[in-house]
Amino acid sequence: MQRNLFLLIWMGQCLIVCQLYHFHYIKDNKKWTEAQQYCRENHTDLVTVTNMKDMKRLISILPEDWRGAWIGLYDQTHGNRKWRWSLPGVEFNKSETNWYRDEPNDAWGMQNCGILWDNLKWGDISCNTPFNFLCYNGEDI
Questions:
Q1: pTM of the model as a whole
Q2: Phi/psi of residue 32, each to 5°?
Q3: Angle at 90 between CA 84 and CA 94, to 5 degrees
Q4: Domain spans, the chain
Q5: How far apart are CA 7 and CA 4, in angstroms?
Q6: What 3 state SS string does 94-111 have?
Q7: For residue 88, cis peptide bond before it (omega within 30 degrees of 0)
Q8: Considering only the top CATH level, what class is 21-140?
Q9: What are the tens digits of pLDDT across the range 42-65?
Q10: What CA–CA distance (Å, rounded) separates 50 from 114?
Q11: What is the mean pLDDT of residues 109-120?
């Protein structure tokens, strides 16, 4: 009970039920679908970043030498560019985005997966490019 009360106070915005995310930086180059599979087998999923509070917490776990990492953002529509989070049931909110300038650009019509670059902005690149990635575990409290 004390732990839950502490977490409710620490999270600041929780009134009834909240999600507490534990972020994990995985230093292992994988394609986006391989990274997603790894996260789903060992954690919950690739990271979903729906607000700047999550982004700030996420940044705190990144090593100094990181250059880019997969996040759970993808577009499988091939043409009409409808971005989604890989975690089912989480809607992509266009007003809560962190795209780098001129992104997403779908260069060569093959950039359908989201990455967090070391400038802390999102980009779209080919899902077949191996990168480190970010997973999370979610717990209801």
A1: 0.80
A2: -55, -50
A3: 55
A4: 21-140
A5: 5
A6: HHHCCECCCCCCCHHHCC
A7: no
A8: alpha beta
A9: 999 999 887 777 788 888 889 988
A10: 14
A11: 90
